[in-house]
Amino acid sequence: MAQPAPSSEQAITPRHVAIIMDGNGRWARQRNRPRTFGHAEGVEALRRTVEAAGELGVEYLTVFGFSTENWRRPVEEVNALFDLLRLYVARDLDKLMREGVRVRVIGGREGLQRDIAGIIESAEARTRNNTKLNLTIAFNYGGQDEIVRAARRVAADVAAGKLNSADLDSGKFESYLDTQDLPAADLLVRTSGEFRLSNFMLWQSAYAELVFLDVLWPDFGKDALSQAIEIYRGRERRYGGTAPESA
User: Fold this and answer.
1) 31 annotated ligand-binding residue
2) Fewest CB within a 10 Å sphere: which of 9, 35, 138, 213?
3) Domains by residue range for the chain, with CATH
4) Structural contact between residues 14 and 245, judged by C-beta atoms closer than 8 angstroms
């Protein structure tokens, strides 16, 4: 997950786009409908966005589906979110297979209903060899929780003599994260006009370009993703260094 050095040749398209899908509840409230209606429309936006990401040349798309803090929501809403994951996989897994999309789910598996855990394992296994687009769904995920779980695994390996603490650096630590096989995020998009990371990909977004769009997630699609990428293209990425032309 190491960051590249500054280059005069900026990547035209971000390799890894991460999205905080926010605004389902507000979208539903504007229409006097229950929050679950907004979540259902959010699934349609996810379908559009996965398709658009492939068309726009994005290699890695990571979306925030259910956070470790979402357990505080009413039970009915939590159950509805789980139902939508079931529905999305049931309806779309064959299509994702045909289109070469590899599916990963990051986050803690504890607390998940048994069938949900089975659905996740099945989706990951079926799509393991796909390479066109890498779709990662952060589910029961929190950035701080991910880092703590990684630190526990590091401590366990040190205690077991499998790892010398003197050999631990940022690259080694990344191998203990849920995203060990993913590149760092280049572009992080949040919808709904909010300006927070909300505990999403805290480590992986260290040098990501942040784009906040005033569009509610159910209205998101190819046009909004293209807009975010255009904003990204206008940014100068220096990774703590200086711009090549001014060095």
Assistant:
1) no
2) 9
3) 16-141+185-234 (3.40.1180.10)
4) no
Q: Which residues have C-beta within 8 Å of that of residue 138, sequence separation ≥ 6?
A: 62, 63, 64, 65, 66, 67, 105, 106, 107, 200, 201
- Round to whole Å and give the CA distance between 103 and 114: 19
Q: Give the pLDDT confidence of 44-98 residue by residue, as tens digits.
A: 999 999 999 999 999 999 999 888 888 888 888 888 888 888 888 888 999 999 9
Catalytic residue among 32, 70, 140, 167: 70
Nearest to 135 by CA among 6, 3, 17: 17
Q: Give the tens place of pLDDT for each residue, 110-142.
A: 878 888 889 999 999 999 999 999 999 999 999
| pLDDT tens-digit readout, 132-168 | 999 999 999 999 999 999 999 999 999 999 999 999 9
The gap between the terminal CA atoms of the chain, to the nearest Å, is 25
Q: Give, for 166, the enclosing helix (H) or strand (E).
A: none
| Single pTM value for the model | 0.91
The verdict on whether 199 is a catalytic residue reads no
Residue given tokens 């280049």 in the structure block = 186
- H or E stretch including 25? helix 24-29
CB 137 within 8 A of CB 104: yes
